[in-house]
Design a protein that fits this description.
This protein is α+β, with helices and mostly antiparallel strands and 392 residues long. The chain is built from eleven helices and 16 strands.
């Protein structure tokens, strides 16, 4: 049996302190391109250098990089020291309140995630798959929490197998529901509609017709077609929606310019035009086998335009480019009627305080059962004709 390598852990207070080549060598990739765009070094760097995810905004990087005694990188855990629970999409405010009422301090905490991004992706980045290295990342995170006086460590939106692996290391597992669209080899949108009940087909056709009834057109922009004028328009939409929904958008204008400089080929911006004027837009990101819908906004309210840009255009794009899945972001049971099916998401949690840990463990046991029951109920309301689903 070969000797296990001596592992060295370095805590990096910035994404910039890890060379892009080192970071990306640890990210799952195909032909030199990261399978998930949100794990790319350029995405984290754009969040950091634009000022969106920094210590000043409550997202202080504490990325764990594991290497052997020859400085060969072996594993990476993207990690942040946080002073709040905003921008995570896995809600633990009740846990924070409980600990505060008991005289403890929930913040700071450590958050292993892609900031502001509820998309499932591995968070224990170990190309070899060596469970010893993955366990070392978890152990280092726990030790770091103790050193930083952090109450807990949270790894959110992890794949199911990874969640089970982390759970076996003594962490708590949490479940939630998103809605994803699955491509069954469709040649066209009409092919997809044929899998739905007659009533649902008619509803979707009417919504698509009404959304563009006033002569609106939609353009898909990616790569070199994206210019700053497009980002100016989209940011106005995004800022307006963010202000109406939660008061302050998480992403600033500079972030999108940096994204355009380094990741334009991973972005699909869908803009709705009234003549030469853009009035609404949705941003999507391209993965190996899927498209991720993220943010949307508009400066004019048009019936069903949100559904058209965020859901139906994404389906059109996936069919045209032979992508398997559309992930349309967090929550949203209204997606069900539009052909998006329930999908389970997972997060894992290590809590230092034994009393809080026991209380959360009990809560999560009941919550998981509730999520499973709710998904069973939701499945009864999918718009598909009997026998047409192949993703289950």
């Amino acid at each position: 049996m070969a000797d296990q390598p001596t592992l060295r852990a370095a805590i990096h207070p910035s994404t910039a302190s890890i060379p892009a080549a080192v970071w990306n060598s640890l990210v799952p990739s195909t032909d030199g391109r990261s399978d998930n765009p949100f794990l790319d070094h350029a995405f984290f760097l754009a969040l950091e250098e634009s000022g969106c995810a920094t210590g000043r905004t409550g997202w202080q990087p504490q990325h764990i990089l594991l290497s052997d005694d020859t400085d060969q990188p072996l594993g990476l855990m993207p990690l942040f020291l946080k002073s709040h629970s905003m921008g995570e999409y896995v809600f633990d405010h009740g846990w924070a309140d409980a600990l505060e009422r008991a005289g403890g301090s929930y913040y700071p905490k450590l958050q292993c995630s892609v900031p502001f991004t509820p998309a499932t992706a591995s968070k224990l980045l170990v190309p070899s798959g060596d469970p010893t290295i993955r366990a070392a990342l978890l152990s280092t995170a726990q030790q770091l929490a103790i050193q930083r006086n952090a109450s807990s460590v949270h790894a959110t939106f992890v794949p199911e197998a990874e969640a089970s692996e982390i759970e076996s290391d003594g962490w708590l597992k949490r479940m939630d529901t998103q809605f994803h669209w699955h491509n069954q080899g469709f040649a066209s949108f009409d092919d997809f509609l044929k899998t739905l009940s007659s009533r649902k087909r008619k509803t979707i056709r009417r919504e698509r017709r009404d959304a563009l009834a006033d002569g609106l057109t939609v353009k898909w922009l990616s790569g070199s077609d994206l210019r700053e004028e497009h980002w100016d328009a989209f940011y106005a939409f995004y800022e307006d929606t963010g202000a109406r929904k939660w008061g302050r958008p998480y992403l600033n204008r500079d972030f999108f310019s940096r994204l355009n400089q380094t990741m334009a080929d991973r972005v699909v911006l869908m803009l709705a035009y009234d003549g030469p004027e853009a009035i609404a837009g949705a941003i999507n990101f391209l993965g190996k086998d899927r498209i991720f819908g993220r943010n949307w906004g508009c400066t004019r309210e048009v019936p069903f335009l949100h559904f058209e840009l965020c859901y139906y255009q994404a389906i059109d794009y996936a069919i045209a480019h032979k992508l398997d899945v559309v992930e349309a972001g967090a929550q949203g049971e209204h997606k069900l009627a539009r052909g998006y099916a329930p999908a389970t998401t997972y997060s894992t949690h290590w809590i230092a305080h034994p009393g809080l840990r026991d209380a959360v463990a009990d809560y999560l046991e009941h919550e998981r059962a509730s999520v499973e029951r709710n998904q069973e109920l939701l499945e009864q309301f999918t718009p598909f004709r009997k026998g047409e689903r192949t993703d289950r």
